[in-house]
Amino acid sequence: MVEYDFVRQTDGFTCGPTVALVASAAMDPAYGATVTDASAEQHRIHAAANRLWPRKLGTTPWGVAAVISAHTAPLGVRYGWRPFRGDLRAALAAVECDWPVAMLIGEGIPRHWVLIVGHSDGVLQCFNPARGSVASVPVSDVVHRRLEPLGFPRAFALVLPTRTVRA
User: Fold this and answer.
1) 93 Cβ partners below 8 Å, 6+ apart?
2) With 60 as the cut, is the pLDDT of residue 136 above it?
3) Contact criterion met (CB below 8 Å) for 81 and 158
């Protein structure tokens, strides 16, 4: 298991790359071992994930999914994204199988990425790259738009395992 407090986002725009970095390191320890400068790696990921998207607007769900998929494809899994519509079953199933799930949150608009890294007894463990720490959030708070402990109340999108890659 990756130590989640080893990295914080370096600025107001690298929450997505930081989440992708932590998820990728969790799934691909060999990759994680090569990261000696987390700040530089966040910026490298940000540039790679946002070739056509302005970096000042953060990272798109498809960009986060592509970065994570680059590390999970050798394991036979691809990540994809979907809008959050109140159903966490697929996310909970993924996390219970040790596949982290990225969640895009915000208020009126999507603004911040967090990473769901665990689930037990109806409570999610969410890595928040702004703080470099894990917060406990009841599943019901996600559904009822009460995510203030993560900085914003509402979930907008999930990036999670979506399909198995043929060998």
Assistant:
1) none
2) yes
3) yes
Inform me whether the pLDDT recorded for 126 exceeds 80: yes
Q: Tokens 């071992």 — which residue?
A: 33
Distances (CA, A) of 34 to 4, 21, 40, 42, 76: 16, 11, 12, 13, 22
Structure tokens at 92: 């909970």
CA angle, 126 then 130 then 131, to 5°? 75
What's the pLDDT tens digit per position in 32-61?
999 999 999 999 999 999 888 888 888 999
SS3 117: strand
Q: 89-99 burial by CB neighbour count: b if 16+ within 10 A, else e?
A: eebbebbeeeb
**Fold topology of 12-164:** Cathepsin B; Chain A (3.90.70)
Taking the C-alpha atoms of residue 147 and residue 152, their distance in angstroms, rounded to an integer, is 6
Task: Say how many CA atoms lie within 13 Å of 17 toward its Cβ.
Answer: 23
| 3-state secondary structure (DSSP) of residue 9 | coil
Structure tokens at 119: 């689930």
Instruction: Transcribe 127-163 into DSSP letters.
Output: EETTTTEEEEEEHHHHHTT--GGGTSSEEEEEEEEEE
Q: What is the mean pLDDT of residues 67-93?
A: 95
